[in-house]
Amino acid sequence: MRVYEIMFIVNPNAPEDEIDKINSQTENVVTAGGGKIQKIEKLGRRKLAYPVKKFSEGFYVLFRVDANGDIVREVERRLRVMDPVIKYITVKMDDEIRRIEKARKHRQKRASRIGARQAARAEQAAGQATEATT
Amino acid sequence: MRESRDASKEKRGGAARQYFRRRKVCKFCVEKIDSIDYKDAKMLAQFVPERAKVAPRRISGVCAPHQRRLVEAIEKARNIALLPFTAD
Fold this sequence. Notes:
The complex is a heterodimer. Chain A is α+β, with helices and mostly antiparallel strands. Chain A is built from 3 helices and 4 strands. In chain A, strand 2 and strand 3 form a beta hairpin. The radius of gyration of chain A is 25 Å and the shape is elongated. By secondary structure, chain B is mostly helical. Chain B has a single domain (24-88), classed as CATH 4.10.640.10. Chain B is built from 5 helices and no strands. Chain B is globular. Chains A and B meet through strand 2, strand 3, strand 4 and helix 3 of A and helix 5 of B.
């Protein structure tokens, strides 16, 4: 299982319930194949950076799912045949997640190291201070 | 470490250079952004000037590892019409 983000653009003239229908259909495909939905996000209407199928606007929807290749293939096939969907993209997120995790760990380690060093220095300073008074 | 080396280099060339140029720093390093998200079109747009080409590192000051990530993100964003391929 991998983490994927599936983003697609729906015809901006499609009614809201049609978008919901597409979403629930896609959700069913994922869960039926043994995948898990992490989140579904309607990003809303946006201007497209370039015309797609003569549309200059589109309704963006983002899925974040735990899935495998078979599920992704099926979802993409369905999106392709759905008329209101004008464009879609699937992005594998595993590497990105791993990278974020690594960076966070690295930063934490560094922070604790610096913290330890400062504590040691403070202790030393305190020790010298007491020495001076005696 | 890297900063001190750069500083010494600047000092050497300092006599010839007449005006002060602010040293460019990588936005992603400075702001500690771990992941460059392809969905964040507004942020990516900073690195694609009018001609819709990716700004070179010498202009934007982005470090090499981050530039690689940045280009990946921009290409994904282009694929889903968040960013243009060409200026029209």
